[in-house]
Amino acid sequence: MTLLNKKLNPIASLVYLLGGTDLVQEKIRSAFDLISLSNKGIKKASMEALIGHMGMTKKSFAEDILNLSVKTIERKKDDDLLDKYTSSHIIEVAKVVEHAYEVFETEERVQKWLNTSNRALNQMKPLQLFNIPTGIALVNQVLGRIEEGVYS
């Protein structure tokens, strides 16, 4: 089921991308709740749920985005909590992926856009910029421009 079919608000969509209320058991109503969730740590299974929506491998996500060894991730159990910095990074990526769903509406189009070189991103794929906060913000800016009908 896509986010579009669920007609969720952005926060509910974000929780959906992170595996739903089964994995994100805290009530998320604001950015402060996301900070609290980051500080507590998200479950490894939430990260894996997000990876599934992005159409990339766990190895690529761990190594290229989080700068962690995939072996480090694989040693963790699904219910293990990730550290606050990793959790925050994953939540920030999930927020941009949620924005991409608002713009492109289907998983297929979101995954295609995330994996396609973009002139507005200096011919880089959006996924290539998710490794640092500045890159995440830049991808989000481009999504905003697309949403407003500005050529990107």
Q: Can you tell me about this structure?
A:
The chain is an all-alpha fold and 152 residues long. It has one domain (3-147). The chain contains nine helices and no strands. Helix 3 packs across helix 7. The longest helix is centred in the middle third of the chain and has 21 residues, at 84-104. It starts with a helix and ends in a 5-residue tail after the last helix.
Q: In a few lines, what is going on in this structure?
A:
The protein is an all-alpha fold and 152 residues long.
- Overall mean pLDDT stands at 91
Number of domains: 1
Spell out the helices and strands N to C.
HHHHHHHHH
The portion of residues forming beta strands comes to under 5%
Count the helices. How many? 9
Q: Topology of this protein?
A:
Elements: H1 3-6, H2 10-17, H3 31-40, H4 44-54, H5 58-65, H6 70-74, H7 84-104, H8 107-114, H9 133-147
Helix pairs in contact: 2-7, 3-7, 4-7, 7-8, 7-9
